[in-house]
Structure formats: C-alpha cells, structure tokens
Amino acid sequence: MQHKILKNLFIFLVFFFLYLPILVLVVFSFNTSRMNIVFEGFTFDWYKVLFENRSLLEAFKNTMIVSLVSTLCSTIVGTLSAYVLHRYNFFGKKLIVKLLYIPIVIPEIVLGISLLSIYTLMKLDLGMFTLILSHIAFSIPYVIISVKSVLTQLNPQMEDAAKDLGANAFHVFWNVILPNLVPGIISGAMLAFTLSLDDVVISYFTAGPGSNTLPLKIYSMIKTGITPDVNALSTIILVFTLFILILVSIKQMRKIKKEARV
Amino acid sequence: MNRIFKRLASLPISFYCLLLILLPLVYIFFLSFLKSDSYGGFTYVFTLQNYLKLFDVVYLKVFAQSFFIAFITTVICILISYPFCLFVNEKSKMVQSILMTLVILPFLTNSLIRTYGWMVLLRKEGIINTILLNFHIIKEPLSLMYNNLGIIIGMVYTLLPFMILPLYSSISKIDPRYIEAAKDLGASKLTIFFKIIVPLTVSGLFNGVLMVFIPCIGYFFISDLLGGGKLMLLGNLIKNQFLTARDWPFGAAISIALLLVTYLLVRIYRKSGGEMDDLGGL
Amino acid sequence: MESKVIVKLENVSKSYGTKNVVKNFNLEVYEGEIVTFLGPSGCGKTTVLRMISGLEPVTSGKIFIDGKDMNGIEAMDREVNTIFQSYALFPHLSVYDNIAFGLKMKKEKKGNIQKKVKEMLKLVNLQGYEKRLPHELSGGEQQRVAIARALINKPKVLLLDEPLSALDKKLKKQMRVELKELQQKLGITFIYVTHDQSEALSLSDRILLMRNGSIIQLATPYELYEHPKSKFAADFIGDANIFTGEILGVSKGLANVLIDDTFHIILKDDGYQKGESVTIVIRPENMNVTTVNKEYNLLDVEMKNYSYDGAYYTVFAKSSLKKDLKLLLTKEKFANIQNKKIWKVFFDFDDMVVIRGNK
Amino acid sequence: MKKIVCLLLLLFLVTGCSSNNENVLNVLNWSSYIPDEVIRAFEEETGIIVNYSTYSSNEELLAKISSAKTGTYDLIFPSDYMVELMIKRDLLEKMDTSLLENVSNLKEEYLGLEFDVNNEYSLPFLATTIVIAVNRDHVTDPISSYNDLLNEKFKNNIVLLDDQRIVIGMANQALGYSMNDVNATHLDNARDWLLTLKKNVKAFDSDSPKTFLITNEVDIGVMWNAEAALALQSNPNIEIIYPLENGALSLDNYAIVKGSKNTENAYKFIDYLLRADVMKTIIEEYPYINVNMETEKILDSSYLENPAANIPEEIIAKNEMVENIGSDISKYDRLWAEIK
C-alpha cells in the first residue's frame, strides 16, 4: 500500500516537473506586475500588448506559412517516397534508405550549418524559401517513417488485386494504396507540423531578412529582457495546442467507439 | 505508363536525398579540409590544420564540457525515466494512454517558451527562491541558473520525453509473465530489474540515450539562456564559427567530429538490437 | 467433342536468382473446365497462377490466353481475373465500389456499371450489401464479394488462389458447392490452386499434381485416385498403404515381390524384370479382412488402435512389416475382428496399384 | 476539407509573397536600437515596407553580410572598426551625402574619424561608451576601476558583455595596455586577469545586461551606457561609474551594403533617422550618446540628467575605440574560448 503511494507520488512529481514552467507562464500572463515574482492583480493587458506587437504577429504569420507549406510539401513527397521505397527497386535505393535517417539522428546544429553552407554555395537568398526548404529537409524522414509503418501492415495482395482488375501503377497508388495510408499520413503530417512549428536551431541558421519565425522572435524577446507579453503568447499557443489535441482525441475516441460497435 | 510512374515517383526522394542530405554533408566534409583566411572566407588549399586545431587544449576543453553536460543530462533522464515508465506501466491501459499523452502534451508547445518558464522559476528572485525564502527554508537565495545546474535542468526538461517514450514503449512490450516467473524463482526486486527488465529494454534505452545525448551537445540556446553564456558547449562553438568568428572550415571540422560521435552511438544502438525506424518518434 | 484450348503454357520456367521455382511447364487448359493445381506449399503452384495472371513475369517459355501470346502484356490488360487467398478486398471501398472497381478502371459508363454491379450482387446473393465496408462482412460474404469483383469483368479464365483457405470447415464445404454451381452456370474456365486434396477431388474436372516446380501427374480426380502414377501421387491424394519391394521372380503370369525381407506378395505379371523395384499401393478401404484361407497374399495382423468417425472405423494394425497398416472398416467387419487377437488381411490383385520403380 | 486547406495555403502564399514587392528596405540592425513605432511611422509616411532583422555583434553582422547573397540587405549599422574592415573587403557602397537633407544635423566631432576619414562610406548614427553600473542597495564597497571588480566579495555578482573585443579590451586596459593590444605576453596576462574576474561573473550577456541588474540577479554590471541608463530609470539606487581606465567608445554608423537593390529607400530611411525629432524618440527609448546637434537642443531633462545617458565630454574624449586587428583576431578567439 505504502509502495503504491510512493509510486504515485513519483509519477506526480515527474508531471509536476513537466508542467511547472508552463503553469507559471499561464498564471503570470494575467499578472499586473512586470516582474513575475508575486501575483499582484489580474489583467488582460499583456494580451493587448501582444496584439499590438506587429513584428511578433509578422513572425507568427511567417511561422504559419513556413510550417504549413513545409508540412504540405514534406507530406506529399514523404508519402509518395515511402510508397516508392516500399514497392520498387531502383538505382540508389539502398543509399537513399540509409541517408534518410541522417536528418533524424545528426545534431540539428550540424544540419543547420550544412544547409546554410549549401545555400551560400548555391547563392540562394536566405529567406522564406530557404527556411521552407530546410524545414522540408528535416520533416520528410519523419513522414516517411510514419507512412511506412502503415504501409507494411497493408495486405500485399491488395495491390495485385488492383492490377488484376485493370489498374495501372498510378491508379494502384492513387485509388487503392493512398486511401489506406491516411492514418499514417495524418500522424506524419502532425509530427512534421509540430517539429516545424517549434524549430529553433535550423531556422536560426537558415532564416533571412523578412523571414523571422515565431521561435526566433521569442528567442530574441527572451534575450532582450522580461516581457510578460511572452507569457501571454505562450498561454495562447498552449491553449491553441490543447484545443487541437482535444479535437484530435475526440475524433479518435469516436472512431474507436464506432469500431467497437461493429 | 507503369515505368513512367515508377521513374517519376522516385524522382523527388532521389533529389531530396541528393540535394538536401548528401550534398550538404559532403560539402561540409570538403570545407573541413580547406584553409580559412582571416575574417571571412576560405581558400581552396588542402589542410589538416582544422582537425589539428581540435586537439588544442582550449577546444578539447569545450568537447569535455559538452560531453560532461550531455552525460549528466542523459544519466538523470535515465534515472527519472526507468521508475516513471515502470510505475506507469502498472496502471490500467486507459490510464497509461492518458498519462503518456500528458507526457507529450507540453512538448507540443514552444520549447523556448518553456525554457523561459524555467528562467522565471530559477532566477535569484524567481519563484523557487522566493518561496524557499518566505518559508525560511533557506537564508540566502540559491544559485539555480547561470551555471551548470541551470543548463542541466533546462536540458533534462527539454529532452526527458525523448527518453521516456522509447523506454516506455519497450517496457510495455515486456511479457509480464517473465517478471512473475522471476518472482516465482525467488529473484529480488533489484535482480528482476537488472537481470530481466534492463536486458529486455536495452534497445529502448539506447534509443533514448541517442535522442538525449546528441541534441544535448547541439542545443546552444539552452546554454545561452540558462547558462548565462559562461559555459561554451560544442553547439555554441559551432555557432560562433559560422555566425561570428566566421571560420567555416573549423566549424565544419567540429561538425564532422560531432558526426563521428553520432555515428558511434548509432552503431551501439544498432548492436543493441534497435531499429532505425524507432528513432525520433514522438 | 474436342474443346477449345483457352490457356496454353509452353515450356514455362520461373527462377529467382539461381532457384528454379517452376521448371519447363507445359499445360493446356480447355474452355469451361475446372483445372486444379494441387501440391504441397512451396511447390510453385501459386507462381504458375501468378504468371498466367501477369502479376509475375515468366523467366522463359510462353503463355497463350485464347490463342494470344501474353509476352509483354501486363496484368491490367489480360482477360483473366484472380480471386486471392485473402480476398484482398479494398478496405476503404464499399461492396459496391469494390465490385465496380474493374469497370471503373476500364472507364465504363456509370449507368452500365450500376446495372452490372446489380446483376453481380444478385448472382452472388448479396443484394442490399452495396454500402457495407469489407470489415463489416463475414468471411463467406467477403468471399462472394471477391468473386463478384472478379466475375464482373467477364474474364475468359478465373484464377482462384486458395480461395477457401480462410474459411472454417463447414463454410468451406458450402462454398465449394456454390463455386461449382456458379462455374457450371457461367461456363467460365476456372484455374484453381489448393493444397487441400479433398477440395481438389471434389471440385475439379482435372487435377494437376505438382511438386518442386514440376508436374507429377495431370489426370481426372478418379484417375489420380485410383491409378496414381507415382508414390508421391498415391501418398498425397487420399490415404494409402504403400509397400516397396523387389521382384524375386516371374512365372506362370505371376510375379513374386518380397517386402521388408519377410512378406511375399504375388502380383499379376506385367512384364516385370527380376530384381526390379516396385511400389505397391493399397487404399485403406480396399484392405480386406478375411477368414477364408487363401494360398497367397495373406498377412497376419494384430490391432494396435482404432478410431470411429460415425460411418467407419479406422484401424491401425501391427504385422511383420515395418510399417503399420491402415484399414477403413464398416461396423460389421469391425465387429468381426474386434475381439480377435490375431486376424488376417488379404491383398486382392484388383485392389493393388503397382507403380514401377520406388519413386 | 481538402479545398479549404488548399485555399488557406494559397492565401498564405499570396500574403507571403506580397511582402516581396518592390517598395521595401532590408535593414539589419542591432537588437534594441530603433523603437518599433519609429519604423512604423516611416512606413506610413513613405509606403516603404521595412524588413527589419537584428544581430548582436559586429562579427555576426559581418558573417551575415558575407554569407548572404548580394542584395539581401540594404542598410546596416556597423561599428567603427567594422566599417573599416568592410571598406577593406569592399562590402560597402559609397555614400552620396547630397541626397541627405538632414546630414548637416550631425555633430562635427563624430565626423571624419580615422576608420572612414572622409565619411565616404558611413555616417554616424549613435555612439556608446562602457560604464560600470552598481546597485548601491546591496554593494557599499567603493568601485572606481575595472581592477576593483576583482574583489572577492563580488563572487557571482557581475554581468559582463558577451563581446570578446570589449571584455578582453577591458582586461588590457585594467593591466595598463591598450584595449587593442595583441602582444602575446600581454594577452596571457589579460587571460589570467579575466580568469580571476570570471569567478565574480554570473553571466556574459550583450542583449540585455540591464535585466540582470533590474531583477537583482547581480549587483554590478559592465555595460553600454544606454543599458545602464535604463537600469537607472527603474532603480534610482544604481550608481553609474565611469571607469578610471580609458574606457571604450563605440560609434555605430549608417552604411549601405554593396549591391543593395533599394539604395533610394535606404537614403530616405537614413534621412528620416537624421531628423531631430525622430532621433529624439530613438534616444529617449534607448539612451545612447547623441550625435545629432539639432536633437541636442530639444532633449528632455530625463535624458540630460541621467548620468548614464548624458556622458561628460571629457570621458568620451579619453575613450579608446576598438580597432581592426587583422589576423590577430584568432588570438582573441582562442583566448575567448579559453576563459569560457
């Protein structure tokens, strides 16, 4: 019995550790005091300040563009590639399969500087384009792995059946394989999106003028002093993420229930 | 038609691997053998000077500091994650999945913002010190950040889920009958842990080690924000070479050294029976 | 009446690397018949089927369907359709869309498709199931959707790859009947792959017995059962007592075979040479229990154990021979021997199938 | 659903591209240097969209300029020695002062300095000097020079700039050398001096050292005067000390990057910043040393009475400036890595 209490206490402490800084930020985003030490009074002022900060909103817009575009591109390329790598043999496939793990395991900073060097070599303007390209670069492998895990579970005879019924290679992929990959594609895209949304290190090296992203902006805000509007911003981001997560899990619950009924 | 589809469909991935993975790394490798000129560029002269420079005591110290921080962070993550995962694994399936979602949740918010939350907590007049002072637990405020402690707290916090998730996934796969059998045969709890649980979760463990140790070396922003810029880590050193000192060849050489370390860890992970596909999955 | 040859295989071989999976295969399948490829798993029967359907290219040799050389023609353009072992229904498509898939690929008009799907659903008795998804169907229903999905394309030949293996025993027997009825109704040629000999015997017009990528025997079920041409065929199809021995001598139209150095069997002479090896096959139901004293082919046996399946007793008996004997006895015959310790079995000339050689 | 996503993306792309239109100005400036409202007012006045990015050291600026494609940035604000270096490396466009109506507002003494004798490539924007700020609530010991900071009592109680030239220069001056000294033995001494000082250093920070003072994280800071002035504004008990040593003066300058595609807009922006009232807004938000005569006349008392903002002229006169030391910079690099 005592054991159980101790175990639960340990679990609780770990969660306390995980949630403490977030809790602090949320609470103090409503604090009238600038110094964050004692809670002096309730206010929405920091939210107002936040929405008047044009460069922050600009950074938010940039982040959304970069994340959405890079997620879209990496999801398309990743899904197609996962299928191609699963289904076909072609020149260089073995090498490609090995290379794909590199962006996942190498330190982000090395990926960042190597991309920066290559952009300089190719005389590319640092900006939204290079930023999106870099985000695509680190997202694709995650999408591929996620889609691959669903692909390997598909009935391999399904593809034969489609061919047998007169489908060509494109139709096999589009009409038969793709619809069955949807769960893998969604989770891959979600992973790519969150990674892109939160990326600091790679963006730090590959962003240029006019392509400041939210994490970079927050980084410079934190570095230049105490700004309670950062608290307000983090609260908004937190609520937003929670909202999406709850939506997703409700949808999943419904699906599970529906399947259970059948 | 079918051949055309195959060709077309394999193009994007080939281009991607070639242009965004292989080329940058080959170029960095190439750069690392070039001679840097003062302030700025590099000349196309072959030299090993950049690698020799790595063995300068000053830079060896930076390696040592980085690995020390990464090592301590990894050990702490392991010490937290094992009991946590084991205890969570004892709960019902429903509770388990809720708890694991709760582990992931904070990491869907911005990592810098969370780091900032720690700054608010750990400052000299921050929340923790204020509370401890008010309850007269301490007389002088504790130095919780702008030192190694701050860096390690930040690193552990940011990287903990990368240890918990793979470890949990391999612990939850252990057949409980093994543990029952061991108990039946009179094994003590410690024996069960070291002789059964650890060997069965070794690939999950190394997965976690890989995903904690390596990023730890490169996360310059945590040592910048929580370390007060006093401790130079490899990430900061590389960043300086590329963004301030502008000695790209030397920065490239450090990166190659870092890649070697990464490769070594990946080999160990593969030896432990780990699958590449299990890496980096949140 | 000589039927038209619908599928013809000429020296077809298939190898993966250095491994030859199908060796020099020659076969003619006639229009409207059911030919079954029977053999143990890994014998290459599915590979032959996949080569006919075009899902697997041939390594050498030629395949003709309805007289046309299929070389270079892909699966999608061949007028054959397959029913897969796992049915391979598309899980994301409804019953209707599954069945309509082939027609949609051929870009048929919507109205046409609707009409044809309706006909098919009626044919396989699945009216009203249009909107269901495959995972909402039972195994038998899924099977029928798979059949409808293949038949709607009016294939010249329907290829069936172990179509019943996923069903339970009772459903299997029912579907066997349904399949046969369907085939008779439509008159489509079936090429059927199975490793289940009873399925093959009950369904087929002809059975092609395969082993290690080669044809062992191609014959009607009756021929194959009653006159197996090899020890393997005898053993694989139905139960059999098999004895291998050597001809000791031939005289007066009779041949003397020694089995296991102890027991002599007398056969009708068929031009045997002295010293030749022969294999003798006797089906369990042809083993005669006798009380009459004969001069030859009588073996003393002792019951070891038995089982009863409702109609017959299966008896295992010990004798001087190395292998136990297996007998299938009616209740009356079993009653005769039940209490005897030693009794006799008689090997009649007509009940023995003799295979020259010992292979 | 698919269509909605596509539409959204399209919308984003369109809005994203719209900022790529002709009338832009790409400014690369120090962080916390020009208030947001000043830029907004300029945008409203001219219709030019300012893409504003920041850097936190001259070296970072140089790295950004040399690694980015030409034409990426238009207007930058390098310090003195960096101007000289950039001229040498042919990174700057010549400046046509005739296009600037308000150039006459600049104070004489900040023109024609050694790094760009004829102001061919640069014009002064703001100046700044290093001061020591001490929180007298907690520290009573007398402090007048850098050497006083070595006092063991100040353990973990000092914030320094995260700038190798300034910090090593400090050590050089404390030891009686020039802040630009590259003599190997002198630098060894500077290293030892710094290693001693490091015990008292809580953090190196260039971006916002004032925060450390304001939050009582430390009681002593060596920082740019504007940072100290802001700290003083929030805590009147902070004492501003001009170090006994010569100290360091840094002059930040307008400069147009070679290959700039928007030079006309750059001139418009410079001219705008040269206006007396605009500079007043800037300098009151970030109280650096004013280099504009006309602004001087209208400054409020809050600036004039702040000892960290309104620096006495004799102090500025004796200040040393950071000089370009060529390849000897590698010695500084190594020394910097050594003390960190």
Task: Describe, in plain words, how this protein is organized in 3D.
The complex is a heterotetramer of chains A (262), B (282), C (359) and D (340). Chain A is 79% helix and 0% strand. Chain A is globular. Chain B is mainly α and 282 residues long. Chain B contains 13 helices and 2 strands, in the order H-E-E-H-H-H-H-H-H-H-H-H-H-H-H. Chain B has a two-stranded antiparallel ribbon. In chain B, strand 1 and strand 2 form a beta hairpin. Chain C has 359 residues and is an alpha+beta fold. Chain C folds into 2 domains: 232 residues, Rossmann fold, CATH 3.40.50; 116 residues, Beta Barrel (OB fold (Dihydrolipoamide Acetyltransferase, E2P)). In chain C, strand 12 and strand 13 form a beta hairpin. In chain C, helix 2 packs across helix 3, helix 2 packs parallel to helix 4 and helix 3 crosses helix 4. Chain C is elongated. Chain D has 2 domains: 186 residues, D-Maltodextrin-Binding Protein, domain 2 (3-Layer(aba) Sandwich); 145 residues, 3-Layer(aba) Sandwich (D-Maltodextrin-Binding Protein, domain 2), CATH 3.40.190. Helices cover 41% and strands 17% of the residues of chain D. In chain D, helix 5 packs across helix 6 and helix 6 runs parallel beside helix 14. Chain D is globular, with a radius of gyration of 21 Å.
Uncertain stretches of 5 or more adjacent residues of chain C: none
The profile of the biggest β sheet of chain C is:
6 strands, mixed
Number of domains of chain C: 2
Order of helices and strands of chain A: HHHHHHHHHHHH
Output the strand order for the largest sheet of chain C: 6-7-8-3-9-10
Mind telling me the C-alpha Rg of chain A? Answer: 23 Å
For this entry, give a set of tags.
heterotetramer; C: 359 residues; alpha+beta; Rossmann fold; OB fold (Dihydrolipoamide Acetyltransferase, E2P); 6-stranded mixed beta sheet; 9 helices; D: 340 residues; alpha/beta; D-Maltodextrin-Binding Protein, domain 2; 2 domains; 10-stranded mixed beta sheet; 14 helices; globular
Question: How would you summarize the topology of this molecule?
Answer:
The complex is a heterotetramer of chains A (262), B (282), C (359) and D (340).
Chain A (H helix, E strand, L loop, with lengths): L1 H27 L16 H8 L1 H34 L5 H7 L2 H4 L2 H14 L6 H24 L4 H9 L4 H30 L2 H6 L7 H10 L4 H34 L1
Chain B lengths: L1 H30 L2 E3 L5 E5 L2 H6 L2 H33 L3 H12 L6 H12 L4 H8 L13 H24 L4 H9 L4 H12 L1 H17 L1 H7 L7 H10 L4 H24 L11
Antiparallel strand pairs in B: 1-2
Chain D lengths: L1 H17 L5 E7 L5 H11 L2 E7 L2 H10 L7 E2 L3 H9 L33 E14 L22 E3 L3 H11 L9 H15 L2 E4 L4 H6 L5 E5 H10 L3 E4 L6 E9 L6 H12 L1 H10 L7 H6 L2 H4 L8 H6 L1 E2 L7 H11 L1
Parallel strand pairs in D: 1-2, 1-3, 5-6, 5-7, 9-10
Antiparallel strand pairs in D: 3-9, 4-7, 4-8, 4-9
